[in-house]
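Quick board copy: two proteins, each given as sequence then tokens.
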Amino acid sequence: MRKETQKLLVLSLLGLVSVNLAAQEKAKKDTIRSIDEVVVTALGIKRQDRSLGYSTETIKSDELLRTQNNNWTGALEGKVAGLKIQTAGAGPLSTPRITLRGDVSMSSMDDNQALIVVDGVPMNNRSVGTGTPAYGAGSGGDLPIDYGNEVSSINPDDIESITVLKGPTAAALYGSRGAKGAIMITTKSGKGKDGKFQVNFNSYSSYDTVLKWPDYQYEYGQGTLTKNTAGQFYYSYGASADGVSTGGTSSAFGPKFDGQYFFQYDPNENGQSKERQLWRPYKDNIKGFWRTGSTYSNNISIESSNDKTSFRSSLTYLKNEWMMPNTGFDRWNAQFSVDHKLTSKLKSSIKLSYAQTKSDNLPATGYNNQSISYFMIFQNPNVDLAWYKPIWKPGQENVDQIHPFSSFIDNPYLIAYEMTNSVNRKGITGNVSLNYQVDKHFDVLLRSGMIWNDELRTQRRPYSSANYLKGYYREQYINGFNFNNDLMVNYKNKFGNLNVSASAGAGSQYEEQKTQDYFAIGLKNPGVYSLTNAIAQDFKIPKPYDKMVNSLYGLLNFNYQEKVFLDITARNDWSSALPKANRSYFYPSVASSFILSDIFSLRSNNLNMWKFRASWAKVGNDTTPYQLANYYSVSSFPGSVEIPSTYANPNLRPEMITNIEAGMDFSLFKNRLTYNITAYQSNSKDQIIRNVPVLWETGYSLKVINAGEIRNRGIEMMLNAYPIKNKNFSWNISANWSMNRNKILSLPEEFNGEPYTMGSVGGVVYYNAVVGGSLGDMYGYGLMYSPDGQVIFGSDGLTAKPTQMKKIGNAFPLWRAGLQNEFKIKNFTISFSFDGQYKGVAYSQSHHKMTEQGKLKHTLVGRENPDGLIIGTGVVQNADGSFSTNVKGIPLSTYYADYYRRANVETNTFDTSFVKLRDARISYSFPKSLTQNLKLTDLTIAIFGRNLWMWTKFPLFDPEAATLDNATVTPGVEIGQLPTARTVGFQLNVKF
């Protein structure tokens, strides 16, 4: 386009958008994103960014595919201010906990997640667990398994863009489901191909290794400071000429590796060695169990369009072999979409996607015998990993495993190859829409969406496993579907300088899910896993999950001279989860945008755009079904039932969230620098609280009520700049920073000023709500201190034990930040991104246990002390109340077991600040002169990496610690966390 040509192009987007094409073309040369861009908002309505009175961010397809994550949510980490993706470190599927602007509900951790919407169809981000807690040692039960969910199955190759609607204002038209914000996914459609067929082929291979290990010590071996008759520390597997057996302990407070010879375990004898063997460490006896994981993915798509029809078809196959042996998954994704003009006024659109995730084995997580994390904690420095490899004792295949040091510690290869957890999940997501243009002012949209899933899980436990001596088998069937229907009438018109548009609609959403469980408790024949081979069978009658929400909503937009924009929304929901008297609830929102640079004629080469925006919204939030009446549950005794322990509330009201938000957007220096800042406050009232204690005389222990208020305040900042941009070289830098402060303003009167325990993990960490405190506050027992801050010990040399719990810290950081860089040097593109957080804490069960057992390097302190005694640094309180220096020595093993005991949350809790090199990529696009000769549109090769480097003081695997407790991802607690992967991969992209 010639510079002197100034042609006005009017884009019909609700009748509001008019853009100077010449200016837009120039902006595209200077920046990758301008304030005039179109974004997808609630209900799939497309809006111009400048018209919005609230904060949104958009991630394009190229950014999602830059480092090829198995789960698309990983590509968002660190790139959107206020967004947090949290996983439990529980295996390859990485089910995410997705929150925007912090937690706002006391109901449960799951009730704080953002809504995921695909092409206008809300997804179900709820997971179904195994019904078991993360901490289960000694319980004789099983463990949680990360089986993934609908959201984790979405194929990143099919995503066109992701728009993040952060606050209730942005998501107000989604009602209850959008109260915590929404993430809008638009899939690819094949539009804009000018009648030409285009075939895309995207292939990548990636390889995983463990990013970070705990600091294991390999200077001392198994034992508990036992001495022989000569007064020397010794070791003996079983009783021997050297003394009594010391080989039955899991502790590593034994002799130092110093060239001695002891009677040890001999795998050839399946017992004590005939001769003394060299006392030596096996430094690869934990790390050597893990392998280099791999992922291979191939995607092919065909797309085309003309003036009437556009279509796209895509097929993807992904194969993952995870870092733990015999674990991983296969995933098939197929997608088809077509848009067609049936007549000049009637348009139709169909989108269908199919996903199948299949795995023969996924790892269990948590602290119990079946978890590989449990084995890693209990593995001793002097034990060779190879001793476990045969799995079964000779002649006892499928009956008795090799676990020579404790019957409570299962063989790691038995865990990997025999204790399998399989899944076969199939899902279909689809929507059909019809749009009829009545005249130039009116159109009608009818859209219907459906989500269907069918899932089969099995769990196998062989003979001689610690918790199932006679074996165990389970089949779990999960079926569900979700229907969403919308009918919307849209109007647009122009009255002089005023553009007006309006939308009014009705919607309905119905969700149903059913879970069936069958158990074989004990197996008649070892190694035969079927329900017919059960010694005893159990069956859980499926609990229904049915919920329906009907809605009416409206949206009114005013646009004055493309300078002032005003949005007004209103919605009314009727939820089946609430009682008839309170089933209907109404909520509105108002948002406004002022283009100050145009209003005050401030545009120049240095100031291209200055926008002020402000919004207010109220959003209702209902609850899960079956909270209104008491229902009997099936008892473990045949033919009998049990009364519920929680008294239902037939008078529940909806929770209400009120949000105020304001911010500014700037575009400077010919759009080479854009910056925006947002401040917000959100108040959540009438919290639906489920665990309020009642008198036992009522026959119940808990009840459900409405009470309490939570306030969230925060600031978000984002910057994008092109310091250099010319034909052969450009540098783009993006940064974001966000903080959120949460405060509990009120609690139910029933607590009489006492804290409300929202949840607990492992029976030691409690998430207590206290007026003036914050969600995420972690309570537990800790140390006692003298007035001058010294640790108090008792006369026995052990730490003084408090009678009251105290606040240890908060699971959420003070702030988060991300930084992305991209350099283009002719045909090369180099990009990398960092992100991190400041403060926040996490409790580590693994740290407690490995410290208690002397497995970590920090337990080397005091090993050379005379007689193996150590004196704790601190004071002892005297009878008169004064304090004197502690001088009482106690055995090393006793000291570490006491000071870092499981209940001492304080000494096992650590700062989770970190900085990660989240991803990096180098790509080369072959020049057009070559690709045209090959009849290709594009040919690009790349090398990429994820989680390549990390700085943190957190002592275990990953500071982004969370626990999978049944199906809930709980931040701030590490129980049986599995290693995080460092990934390096190669990518090939061909278009023709």
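And the next:
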Amino acid sequence: MAQRHDLDPDESRRAALVESLPAVTDDTPLMAQLQQDARRRIELRGRRFPRPPQTRVITVANQKGGVGKTTTTVNLAAALAQAGLNVLVLDNDPQGNASTALGVEHRAGTPSIYEVLVDGAPLAEAVQQSPDVPNLWCLPATIDLSGAEIELVSMVARETRLRNALDTYLEWRVANGQERMDYVLVDCPPSLGLLTVNAFVVAREVLIPIQCEYYALEGLSQLLKTIQLIQAHLNPRLHVSTILLTMYDARTNLAQQVATEVRTHFPERTLRTTVPRSVRISEAPSYGQTVMTYDPGSSGALAYLEAAREVAERGAVEMRDDYTDGAPADGDARNATHENQAAAPVLQEEQW
């Protein structure tokens, strides 16, 4: 009890409410889920997440389809924005599903990431604000992006076009008196082509969503090899910072075995939070929303909110440690990356 008095009044109230929840056992899984949801509502509703000392650029990638990349991107982005942070989503997938979920216009002809990558258009001319969450912006994708891979092949500095556009946009925001972005989340297509390479070069961190099924583990080694190639030739500061287990069904032995396997191999990177299978998560995009606004009290929304808190708290600590240790600023790392441009053809020969 003495420790609770050391907390601020709001934290003390939350702690008291959590302690008042009934105890559950392993043989009452439904009650355990209800208690977990109640705890998350108490601990997370209205909470402000810590701001990182500089903009965090995170690419959400996994070349296997159907593991929850887009769902994770848009719901983490909405959760971070609802917690008071400024978030930009770059929809780098020709399917444009992230744009749909965030409720932004992405019909053919709409200024989009295609014009930014292929035509060199300013990113500021294409960014749209999400109608449902005030602090959330999106660079949409249109069907035109499906041909960008072919068009990018013959272009100079094809791997760095998205990074250069984002750097210019972030500087433009500050120069025009706007608040800096706290997070930039990049959604990727289910492949390892030039669109995904651009997404890896623009980012400093990679978040890998892993579906709790066996097939999801098979392609992980190839993804990690690709990330190592990017580190060696184009973006030395890129690293896998986060792994999120999605579509988790605690009732099945397989889901528990996959979760155990992932946590054994990546104990520091795997979030404690798992995202359950949820009808609400699947329904939300059909209404042009994320589950965070469609049904904020659902198990799926609460899971993504807790995952977002983990991402924010981990990142704030890690980036603060980088500054303490005298690590180079992000701009310095990007300048160092330019020195590796001459090695880019090596990457192309090895990977494509």
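Board note added afterward: DSSP finds 17 helices and eight strands in the chain.
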